[in-house]
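cron nightly-structures :: item 1 of 1
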Amino acid sequence: MAQKPKPKADWRDETLDRIRALILEADPEMIEERKWRKPSNEMAGVPVWSHNGIVCTGETYKNYVKMTFAKGAFVKDPSGLFNSSLEGNLRRAIDVHEGDKLVEKALKALIRAAVALNTSSARG
């Protein structure tokens, strides 16, 4: 029986792969797990990055990739990267649409700040 060809990665997969690389550049001790299987991503689940607790998740949707920071409301965002889930009192998210350029230096700083928040919470 012939194997089905692997579907070609689209911009969402490429964006999530780049986000993954930036997360690991920002914090090489970050742990990635797959959790919360959902109908749109049934087998793989949602990538969840943790360091002393959940730092962020990455999800692909039809028109964007969402990077949600678990404690984003408490993370300083001087570059204004958070553009979604701004009304809540805990999470904040970044929606990346096709053609958007990631502000890599600012994103890595945001990741480091979220890790620092988790690390300080774990100590206290």
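cron nightly-structures :: done
The mean pLDDT is 90.
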